[in-house]
Amino acid sequence: MKPVAIFRHARTEGAGFLSEYLSESGIPWQLFKVDERESVPDSASGYSGLVFMGGPMSVNDDLPWIPPSLALIRQAVSMDIPVLGHCLGGQLMAKALGAKVGKNPFREIGWGKVEVTAQKEFWFGGLDSFETFHWHGETFGLPEGAVRVLTGIWCENQAFSIGPHLAMQCHVEMTQDMVKSWCEVGADEIAEYRGMSVQSSEEMQQDLDAKISQLNRVARRIYGAWIKGLGA
């Protein structure tokens, strides 16, 4: 089986639980450390799927790896190679497919509930809602042909799907170590935006074991649906 290509855009925002899930499922994967100047491949044909992780930058920034990433997403979609996006990754997918990405009305940081609005059985195993992790200041519009599948109180477009492709604004890939690391790295941002839609580090880490265990169960459903589209 061809590997799944995973693109990391920041050292602290790796594949997290996704890499554990793929390895458990016997699915090979290859990590591209874009943050360490590893090049984005020219072709998607060598991969069974593409996954784009998060990052603190904007898809509207003038960064050398953004245009080839957008081109690769468009190519994969045209070839029916499943694409999966987390936060920045979902924004990359939206922009590549013609939607606008810009400032969200609220900075959203911490744990929060999202509601399932469509395709409940396929992507979410019948869940009506679940608590997930958030860390973003921007959001995406919906590309032509996309279906909004998740929404939230602080961000309307929490996820969309187009066929086998899924773009998420939220972070279902989190592990305990990632939450702790982000709280340390993002301490200044938390202090600057602290409010109803931005939790404190203490709030984010309260009952962390239970919250991560529950999120991992949700992620298994989502990732399990996504890998159904992977080819040989």
Question: Would you give an account of this structure?
Answer:
By secondary structure, the protein is an alpha/beta fold. The protein has a single domain, classed as 3-Layer(aba) Sandwich (Rossmann fold). The chain has eight helices and nine strands. The chain has helices at residues 17-24, 66-78, 88-96, 120-124, 176-185, 187-193, 201-205, 208-226, and strands at residues 4-8, 29-33, 49-52, 83-86, 101-116, 129-140, 147-152, 159-162, 165-168. It has a nine-stranded mixed sheet, sandwiched between helices. Helix 2 (66-78) crosses helix 3 (88-96).
Give unreliable regions as ranges: none
- Spell the H/E element sequence: EHEEHEHEHEEEEHHHH
How many angstroms separate the termini? 5 Å
CATH class: Alpha Beta
The CATH superfamily label reads Class I glutamine amidotransferase (GATase) domain
Helix count equals 8
* CATH fold-level assignment: Rossmann fold
How would a textbook summarize the main sheet? Answer: 9 strands, mixed
Strand order of the largest sheet: 2-1-3-4-9-8-7-5-6
Estimate the helix proportion, in percent. 25-40%
Strand fraction equals 25-35%
Count of domains:
1
Return the structural class: alpha/beta
Mean pLDDT: 97
CATH architecture: 3-Layer(aba) Sandwich
Q: How would the global form be characterised?
A: globular
Number of strands: 9
Which oligomeric form is depicted?
Answer: single chain
